[in-house]
Amino acid sequence: MLQGDRDEMKEKSEVFLTDTHAHLASARFQGEIEGVLARSREAGVGRIISISCDLEDVTANLALASTHPGVFATAGIHPCYVHEPGPEGWRDSLRALAARPEIVAIGEIGLDYYHPPEDGSEVTVWRGLQESIFEEMLQLAQDLKLPAVIHSRESTPAVLAVLGRFPEVKAVLHCFTGSPEEAEKALAAGHFLSFTGVITYPKADDVRATAAVVPLDRLMIETDAPYLAPVPFRGKSCEPGMVRHTCQRLAEVHGLSPDEMAQVTSANAERFFALSGPLLGAGAAVGLEG
Ligand SMILES: [Zn+2]
Ligand SMILES: [Zn+2]
Prior knowledge:
Elements: H1 3-13, E1 17-22, H2 33-42, E2 45-50, H3 55-67, E3 71-75, H4 90-98, E4 103-112, H5 123-144, E5 148-153, H6 156-163, E6 171-173, H7 180-188, E7 192-195, H8 205-212, E8 219-221, H9 243-254, H10 258-273
Parallel strand pairs: 1-2, 2-3, 3-4, 4-5, 5-6, 6-7, 7-8
Helix pairs in contact: 3-4, 9-10
The structure holds zinc ion (ZN) (2 copies).
One zinc ion (ZN) is lined by residues 108, 151, 174-175.
């Protein structure tokens, strides 16, 4: 057996966490990214999907993903950024970048009915713009055969209606805080649901009740870092390593050990995003790889 095969087997049996939604391109992590990734690895995180909100993010996330094993990128326009997705020609640029191998999904995309219109327009106009960009992004996902990372805020029924027009696209509804009934509808349509640190908040019994109805093979976990730090870090800047607290709480909800939940959610993420390759920090200690 070759050394490489043995290393791969060791890696496969290793329990690790997958943070399926972090914003590593955020200004809050600027100049700190190596420390953030090292702390994430120490906390047991093996893979991070770094999510984009606009064209600038896509470029930054691609740079991170191409230089760090275990970091993957997405390409997409967040519903709160549809008025300023990028400079002139952003569509062509986005389409070209989304075809790169480091891009594992189109996202985050969707509908946000919570925040008021960012460009001061009428609510109906703003929501119409969100929906047209959301549809364009789903078409891109379908064309590139990529899954989609969905942002929905006070908009789950509308989001599910739009997703229904793109039955070929698999989707994960990130930071899911909807009701058990909404969860059932999303699950019936074949989608995955992902939970953040919100599930650790003392008052979030409703979110825990929703998480309890999600079958194990449709669950994912995430931080949404730098936002939504879980208990006991609430109010502080959130890092991917904190996903272990979300994993622990979700494990309690489903009556599993934290290790079992880490394995279940990492296997789901691997399947959903078609992830492969070395884990976070691989090659860093010996300096043999890129
Ligand atoms: Zn979001
Ligand atoms: Zn996000």
